[in-house]
User: Which sequence fits this backbone?
């Protein structure tokens, strides 16, 4: 198995913690710009994973300080990137709706909070599940099947 088929799940959990915290903070303090910021970070992370702000904080601050250690496990990175892209798109729509004065925006942000929390606390990734369903249906671009032995 190559290193490209290993995923650091503590990095993913760190991203989820930051995402949940910022979205809750945006709602509690009523700061729509924080929604937009979080969406931009999520989308950038999905398209260019190494450039993601939360990933950089994890790799260049939290790991070197010994706050958290990597948890590399056999896994495909593509479903996680897809999930990040879906979440970032949903938060982008949430920010646009809130800026337009539509309360549905906060509901979309709450949906991302719930789904990220399910992944963080229960280990179930809705975006990953959707990715693998699309893979099973043979949808182009969803080329990776679940790895044997991956959790």
Assistant:
């Amino acid at each position: 198995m190559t290193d490209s088929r290993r995923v650091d799940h503590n990095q993913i959990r760190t991203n989820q913690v930051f995402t949940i915290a910022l979205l809750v903070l945006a709602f509690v303090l009523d700061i729509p710009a924080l929604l937009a910021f979080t969406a931009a970070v999520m989308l950038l992370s999905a398209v260019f994973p190494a450039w993601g702000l939360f990933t950089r904080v994890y790799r260049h601050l939290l790991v070197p300080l010994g706050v958290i250690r990597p948890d590399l496990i056999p896994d495909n990175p593509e479903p996680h990137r897809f999930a990040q892209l879906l979440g970032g798109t949903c938060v982008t729509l949430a920010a646009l709706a809130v800026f337009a004065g539509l309360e549905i925006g906060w509901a979309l942000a709450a949906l991302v909070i719930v789904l990220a929390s399910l992944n963080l606390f229960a280990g179930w990734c809705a975006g990953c599940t959707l990715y693998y369903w699309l893979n099973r249906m043979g949808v182009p671009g969803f080329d990776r099947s679940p790895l044997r032995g991956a959790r």
Remarks:
- The chain has a mean pLDDT of 94.
- The CA atoms of residues 61 and 147 lie 30 Å apart.
- Residues 3-136 form one domain.
- The chain is about 65% helix and 5% strand.
